[in-house]
Specification:
Number of strands: 7
Number of domains: 3
Mean pLDDT: 90
Low-confidence stretches: 347-362, 364-368
CATH topology of the largest domain: Rossmann fold
Radius of gyration: 22 Å
Strand order of the largest sheet: 3-2-1-4-5
Largest sheet: 5 strands, parallel
Strand content: 5-15%
Distance between the termini: 29 Å
Structural class: alpha/beta
CATH architecture of the largest domain: 3-Layer(aba) Sandwich
Helix content: 40-55%
Order of helices and strands: EHEHEHHEEHHHHHHEEHHHHHH
CATH superfamily of the largest domain: HUPs
Length: 368
């Protein structure tokens, strides 16, 4: 058997922190290495969370920094190399240079299982490395396996193999129902997501046992371990569970999640907060978050503003100087308040996604 490393990236947000606590409490025998990718542009609350986590875990969280040896912070170093071209949704060089490359250098060619804190109430996949020696696991979801593993396991060409593994490794009264679903080939009418959901509805543990048996026939990192404790995991953890874990552990939720009253024309009318971890000038921020930064951390807002030059701005159609003009500030707050009221009254799933606090930005999504 080859040695397999277990790693968990701490983004500075609530989900990755809660995952570290959860795994420490539920699976204390897992020898997990904790790391964080420090861009040098994090909020102070991020560093406070990391310190609190280290105390709880009794383990050092390894700091990874890009551009080792540079006299500048990693972001500033690469910004110069990119000719002051600010990162954006269409050109996320910051994710690649400040997060992915330091992480992949950290693990090298070792066999690695990477634990990712995507919640059970989030509809997204998260970061999956293209390197064959890195395998992602999602403990908060009903389906803990990454999409690449699932799609390979249930490819039509593998139906015979999966049925054989079912007979060998799943000994339960539900095997018959599993075989019926597995035998049905994927098609436009019967897509992979439906097949997996049907199997999960029958038995999460049996599906985990089956997929683990399949992984053992591959070169994925988990092929080189004799057993994997998360096979028996049936937990589905959502937003409220995350806050509960952090509160009960004593670590607490990062302060930037705390709702703060904001005013329009001098009157307190609504509340705002930051909804994500990552750099304080993250281009994935909502407009109301830029307003929050301006009003709560004006010094950091001005630093972000100084980066806007030569026609490059954080927002595609608006500079930060324009965003904080009095009438524009008022407009952003009014529009946010309107969406919040609609969301409260109608509980629209779409608006929940807009207003909720998932760490679904490009940087944190890699390692939460």
């Amino acid at each position: 058997m080859k040695k397999v490393r277990h790693v968990l990236g701490i983004s500075g947000g609530k989900d990755s922190a809660a995952l570290a606590v959860y795994l420490r409490n539920r699976y204390p025998k897992l020898d997990i290495e904790y790391y964080t990718c420090d861009t040098g542009k994090e909020l102070e609350e991020t560093y406070e969370l990391i310190k609190n986590l280290e105390v709880f875990l009794g383990k050092k969280i390894i700091r990874l920094k890009a551009a080792e040896g540079s006299s500048e912070e990693p972001f500033d170093h690469f910004l110069k190399l990119y000719g002051n071209f600010l990162p954006s949704a269409n050109s996320r060089w910051c994710t690649k240079k400040l997060k992915l490359e330091p992480f992949e250098k950290f693990v090298g060619n070792d066999l690695v299982v990477s634990y990712v804190g995507i919640r059970g109430d989030e509809e997204r996949e998260g970061y999956i490395s293209r390197k064959p020696n890195i395998q992602s696991i999602f403990p908060f979801r009903r389906n803990i396996w990454s999409e690449d593993v699932i799609s390979k396991a249930f490819a039509n060409s593998n139906i015979k193999l999966i049925l054989e593994l079912l007979n060998q490794h799943v000994n339960s009264d539900k095997s018959y129902y599993f075989s019926e679903i597995i035998e049905r080939p994927l098609s436009l009418e019967f897509q992979l997501s439906k097949k997996v959901d049907m199997l999960l509805d029958i038995s999460v543990k049996d599906l985990n046992s089956l997929i683990f048996a399949f992984v053992r026939t591959t070169s994925y990192p988990l092929a080189y371990v004799k057993s994997f404790p998360l096979i028996d995991n049936e937990d589905i953890l959502c937003r409220d569970d995350i806050f509960k874990i952090l509160d009960e552990s004593g670590i607490g939720v990062p302060k930037y999640y705390n709702k703060i009253d904001f005013k329009i024309d001098g009157q307190k009318v609504g509340q705002y907060s930051r909804t994500r971890s990552g750099c304080f000038f993250c281009f994935f921020q909502q407009k109301i978050e830029w307003v929050w930064l301006y009003e709560q951390h004006k010094d950091l807002f001005h630093i972000a503003q100084e980066y806007e030059k030569d026609g490059y701005t954080w927002n595609q159609n608006e500079s930060l100087a324009d965003l904080v003009k009095p009438e524009r500030l008022k407009q952003i707050k009014e529009e946010y308040l309107k969406r919040t009221i609609i969301n409260t009254n109608e509980k629209s799933p779409f608006l929940l996604d807009i207003l909720d606090d998932g760490e679904n930005d490009g940087c944190a999504a890699c390692f939460i």
